[in-house]
Amino acid sequence: METNTGGLILGIESSCDETAAAVVLCGSETLSNVVASQIAIHSPYGGVVPELASREHLRNILPVVRAALREAGATYNDLDAIAVTEGPGLAGALLVGITFAKSLAFALNKPLIAVNHLEGHIHAVLLEQKMLEEQEKRKDNELSSPADRSSSAGWEAEGPALCLVVSGGHTHLYLYRQFEGAGGPSTPAASKNVGRTVDDAAGEAFDKVAKLLGLGYPGGPWIDALAPHGNPHAVPFSFAQIKAKVHRKNDPNALDPSRMTYFSFSGIKTAVLRHTQVHEMAAGIEARRAALAVISDPKPSDALPLCDQSTLDLVASFQRAVVDDLRRKTFRAAEAFGAATVLVSGGVAANRELRVRFTAEAAERGLPIAFPSLTLSTDNAAMIAAAAWPKLVARDFAPETLTAVPSLALGRG
Question: Whole-angstrom Cα distance, residue 135 to residue 129?
Answer without folding.
Answer: 10
